[in-house]
Amino acid sequence: MRKINIKSLLRLLSPAWWQANWSRLLLRLFAALFALGLIFRFVPIPFSAYMVQQKIDHLFSGDWRYQVNYSWVPLSQISPNMQLAVIAAEDQKFPQHWGFDFNAIEKALRHNEKSKRIRGGSTISQQTAKNLLLWHGQSWLRKGLEVPATMMLEGLWSKERILEVYLNIAEFGDGIFGVEAASRYYFKKPAKNLSASEAALLAAVLPNPHIYKVNRPSALVAKRQHWIQNQMRQLGQSYLKQL
Question: InterPro entries given for it (predicted)?
Answer without folding.
Answer: Glyco_trans_51, Lysozyme-like_dom_sf, PBP_transglycosylase, Pep_trsgly
